[in-house]
Amino acid sequence: MRKVLITGSLGQIGTELTMKLRELYGNNNVVASDLVAKEGFEEIIQSGPFEVVDVINANQIAEVVKKHNINTIVHLAAILSAVGEQKPQLAWNVNMNGLYNVLEVAREEGCSVFTPSSIAAFGDSTPKDNTPQDTIQRPNTMYGVTKVAGELLCDYYFHRFGVDTRGVRFPGLISYKALPGGGTTDYAVHIYYEALKNKKYTSFIAKGTKMDMMYMPDAINAIIQLMEADGSKLKHRNAFNIAAMSFDPEEIAAAIRKYIPEFELDYDVDPVRQAIAESWPNSLDDSAAREEWGWNPKYDLDAMTKDMLEKLRIKLGL
Predict the structure, then answer these.
(1) Are residues 220 and 207 in the same domain?
(2) Which residues, given as ranges, of the chain have pLDDT below 50?
(3) What is the pLDDT of residue 178?
(4) What is the pLDDT of residue 140?
(5) Total number of domains in the chain
(6) Residue 148's pLDDT is what?
(7) Which pLDDT does position 185 carry in this prediction?
(8) Is residue 122 within 8 Å of residue 135, measured between CB atoms?
(9) Are 97 and 180 in a shared domain?
(10) Is 286 inside a domain boundary?
(11) Is 143 annotated in the active site?
(12) Residue 289 falls inside a structural domain
């Protein structure tokens, strides 16, 4: 039986993954953790074990792993792209030293590790369309730098110490349950909220800027599917490209207008986040994930838009 510790469990991915894993493995077998027990996350904090863990503190991680007999660590705690450019020193400290601490505890305690990488691991010199699984990676953000270094560090711990490390390169993630935490792709979440509340949205990403995106249910399924995959069939392990859809702000607005015809979209471009977006791929080649562990997303833009608007109407009481 898996005994799972999730770091950063109150973030955008963690809030949904924690409840899904508790459903699969049992509430007491999935330990949620974060820097603090935040208000508004009572379901996660009260439905199973919750621990305060700062990933910069290796002793805290080790104590929780031993206390709960953890055999799998899902390491989500990280500083994201836009915040990382405002606070690059913090991004390096949390993203790299936090991962190093998790891997060291995993090595010492015999745990497997899942930690996500990102499309931010690519840069201006990477092929933009159908970006290959194995290609040049020269990111120009601190977040991207930490993701490339993290991929390599996880590979090292697998080959050098036999730690069962696994991961995917996530595109932008869209969810109705939790707001994102300072990423470049956040507009694709906020646009749905504003469409329902105000029938209008001002995008900080410029017209025509395509980015790879994914609906959160597919992202959660990808984590679980890769965690449960036969390790002997994995050639890449720590940096699988996965993809579901690619669109620009005009295309997501057009999808919304099928349900809210009066929706208006205008622009006030944030140069920092726009520069980050332009350095990322338009679309990813995810054939390795499909071949090695059967990756197959369920949601395209239209299916996601329909579900997002339905779920948000309920959440917002509209």
Answers:
(1) no
(2) none
(3) 77
(4) 92
(5) 2
(6) 98
(7) 83
(8) yes
(9) no
(10) no
(11) yes
(12) no
Distance (Å) of CA 154 to CA 108, 146, 238, 262 = 15, 12, 7, 48
Residues 308 and 75: their CA atoms lie apart, in Å, by: 26
183's tokens: 């990423």
CA 38 → CA 23, 42, 65, distances in Å? 22, 8, 22
Catalytic member of 25, 143, 215, 267: 143
pTM of the model: 0.93
Quote the CA–CA distance of 133 and 1 in Å, as a whole number: 32
Is 288 within a domain?
A: no
Find the CATH number of the domain harbouring 303.
Answer: 3.90.25
DSSP secondary structure letters along the chain: ---EEEETTTSHHHHHHHHHHHHHH-GGGEEEEESS--TT-HHHHHHS-EEE--TT-HHHHHHHHHHTT--EEEE-----HHHHHHSHHHHHIIIIIHHHHHHHHHHHHT-EEE--EEGGG--TTS-SSSB-SS-----SSHHHHHHHHHHHHHHHHHHHH---EE-EEE-EEE-SSS---S-GGGHHHHHHHHHHHHSEEEESS-TT--EEEEEHHHHHHHHHHHHHS-GGG-SS-S-EE--SEEE-HHHHHHHHHTT-TT-EEEE---HHHHHHHHHS-S-B--HHHHHHH-------HHHHHHHHHHHHHHHHT-
